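Tutorial handout. Part one gives the primary structure; part two gives the three-dimensional structure as tokens.
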Amino acid sequence: MRILFFGTPDLAVPSLRRLIESHFDVVGVVSQPDRRRGRGRKTSPSPVAEQALEHGIPLLRPERVGDVDDELERLDADVGVVVAFGQFIPKKIRELPRRGFLINAHASLLPRHRGAAPIQAAILAGDETTGITVMRVEREMDAGAMALTREIAIGEQEDAGALAERLSQLAADALLDALEELDASRLEWTEQDHSAATEAGKFDRETARIDWRAPAIQLHRQVRAFAPKPGAFTTLEGDTLRVLTAHVDPSAHGEAPGTVECDGRSTLRIATGDGWLVPDTIQRAGGKAMAPDAYLRGREIPNGICLAADEDADRANASPGTNAGATHG
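Part two.
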């Protein structure tokens, strides 16, 4: 089969590579336009676009994919594959391939966690498992009929970055399996139970702000869900302080939520609504991520200080939103 691939970030790269290495023919790649990326903010292609350029595959980088239907039609694809593309795909593009549809690898066990941030949503919800669903792309986000699912367990300490890496490999395997079944005319479709759907829409920066009144176990999930970027955060004397890894100390206490217990040398823990959150890696705005003992050698955290949201100071240190979001994929 002739495959047209739609994708943009690192998450989609393993799937594209697997298809390139397979016996299928990747006849074209569609990705987001070049953007300013990295510390130097230089304009560069997306990770998926870089793969297409490296392998000499025809590449389109439109601001709106609906504007390049003529170019896509000339590629004469049998089916389209979508992984974290990041644009709404109109009906004329969805139905353009010979098979009349596109398939998508979505990073959840649908209908749970439809939307742009299913990995973060699964961790925040305390899910023990997640996975990949291969489905047809329809107008309604992540609501198409399903072809197959692949399930994995979520590690108790696993953060969103590590889980995304595992899911990207699982997506590559699942897509190849689905395409093999489609090529052999054995692929079967099952409608989703729409009544069981849950949403995992874009998260804004405020979702990563730590509310110390919440239980420690919930805050631990929040730390994992937003690591490695942008990082769950609080404020310390008006400055942003990110907590990138942590663990829970369930000990009871009588402290106000947000109160720091610190020996001034190597360890600290912070009172929550139920138990303590114990940071293992922290980062001040503009600084390096480091263990608490290394941080404390350079900056004191007074014992008994209460971490609270100083919104004006925090906005001054604000970084971009927590995720770009994707309309399809």
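Part three, for discussion. Residues 127 and 236 are 31 Å apart (CA to CA). Confidence is low (pLDDT under 50) at residues 309-327.
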